[in-house]
Amino acid sequence: MSSKLRIMIVDDEMIVRESFLHWFTKQGHVVDSAASGFEALEKIERTPFDLLFVDIKMPGMNGIELLEKVTSEYPDTLVVIITAFGSIETAVKAMKIGASDYLLKPFRPDQLNLVMEKILQQRTMTSEYNYLKGRLEKITRFDNIIGASEPMEAIFQLIPEIAENDASVLITGETGTGKELVAKAIHAKSPRAPYPFIPINCGAIPDSLLESELFGHNKGAFTGATHARKGFLEVVSGGTLFLDEIGEISPKMQIDLLRVLEEKKITRVGSSERIDVDFRLISATRRNLEEHIAGKTFRQDFFYRIKVIEIQIPPLRERKGDIPLLVEHFLEKYSQETTKQVDHVTSDAGTHLMGYDWPGNVRELENAIERAVVLSRRRTLDVRDFAFLMPPETAAPGHRTLLEMEKDHILNTLAEFNWNVTRSAEALGINRVTLHKKIKRYNLKDRE
Ligand SMILES: Nc1ncnc2c1ncn2[C@@H]1O[C@H](COP(=O)(O)OP(=O)(O)OP(=O)(O)O)[C@@H](O)[C@H]1O
Ligand SMILES: [Mg+2]
What is the pLDDT of residues 122-166, one digit of tens each? Predict the structure, then answer.
């Protein structure tokens, strides 16, 4: 923070004004003066001041009246009251109203310096506080979605806009990037917030079951249907349906859901009655649905229906700037849960965490912090507490991940075909677009 202030002296005695002007100008501040409370208010209205020195005894509007006006209308302006020695009660009263300090006349330059020092300190503290508060607001803006990186900021800006309208949203991102968190935040900010948010993991439910889960069924609709049951499409009534792993549903289910989205009506399994439904659809997937469309397992018309709006959450390794904030957040969370006071990581440990690739993204980071907090006996976590995270380069040979194997295999194939993408793609049994994406994703380069 710059210590150059905009200061104004308000005193009806010219000699006092002159000496203040001289003194503060010499110190590099921007100084102005006013001979009365009225003149002072006029000047403040035109340009804001950081600090006012105000004499108590002035004709017209006295210093206390001016102080009252300034503290209520310009709370960022600090006021130091100048009062005659012997009228200490007035000074006390001024402090109660909101003066930052007082000077008793006559005073020596070193007393003035002391007051200035205090004022500057106070200002630093205020701006630090505002800074911290601003950060806190940023952090808690959306139900615990932490992030300050550019892509996360963009998502934060998008959420309220998306919440406002009712279009279908598709959230894409690798596992653990926070897709469900974002879906919940959209629901919470939307007019549908008073109604249910129902998450359904399409990948975990077999297709036949999914149908009756979503659409409901009548008594006797199938063996075991001993009584009628409403499906989630009815139960959600007015709220938000979150279909996780939408890429896993069968083409038949895609057609059924497409019809629901178009007609806003359903029929329960084993019934012919059409029932009105009202919900907003948010879907999520870890997969590249365009590839599924190319491979004919995902319908294009359904795809366009569910992704009127698309949010892509980048993997954590592409927004490493969020790691420190996330670490801080999870340390606090798990310290509270375990009632352990673990609130720091050493800078070495921090570097280690920043260097790691996080294939499991934020979920993996959260688990790592939880584990380290639970096992730690110290207040500060160091590198040893994160030894279980192996940086990719030093991962034991023979225990390579599938991704690493894929990367090597692609690289070898490309080398074999002299980096001819078309022929390499053919040999790999994938299409060119996919191969280009993988080349980009793994940052593969021709060594030649
Ligand atoms: N930006 C974030 N801030 C705080 N916590 C986060 C953030 N992103 C993810 N998390 C946490 O990580 C975990 C995984 O998040 P979530 O379930 O939303 O991920 P997902 O993308 O739906 O993963 P999956 O594809 O595996 O279902 C949750 O515990 C969530 O609270
Ligand atoms: Mg999920």
Answer: 777 766 666 665 555 554 456 689 998 999 999 999 999 999 999
Report the chain's C-alpha Rg in angstroms: 33
Could you list the residue range(s) of the whole structural domain that residue 96 is in?
A: 6-135
Give the residue, out of 172, 177, 323, with the most ligand 1 atoms within 8 A of its beta carbon, to mutate for a pocket test.
177
Q: Which of 112, 135, 158 is the last residue of a domain?
A: 135
What total of structural domains would you count in the chain? 4
Residue 106, preceding peptide bond in cis (omega within 30° of 0) = yes
Same domain, 20 and 113: yes
Instruction: Tell me: do 232 and 200 sit in the same domain.
Output: yes
Q: What's the pLDDT at 228?
A: 83
Same domain, 406 and 390: no
> How many A from CA of 161 to the centre of ligand 1?
21
Mean predicted confidence (pLDDT) in 239-243: 95
Instruction: Give the CA distances from residue 53 to residues 26, 97, 259, 379, 418, in Å, rounded to whole numbers and listed in that order.
Output: 17, 15, 73, 47, 78
Residue 256 and residue 182 share a domain = yes
Domain boundary among the residues 266, 296, 312 is at: 312
Instruction: Calculate how far, in angstroms, residue 141's C-alpha sits from the geometric centre of ligand 1.
Output: 16
| Amino acid 131: pLDDT | 60
Tell me the CA distances in angstroms from 126 to 54, 121, 248, one per residue in order: 22, 9, 53
Calpha distance 366→144 (Å, rounded): 13
Q: Which CATH number fits the domain that encloses residue 334?
A: 1.10.8.60
Query: Strand 78-84 vs strand 6-10: parallel, antiparallel, or unpaired?
Result: unpaired
Q: How far is the CA of 179 from the centre of ligand 2 (A)?
A: 6
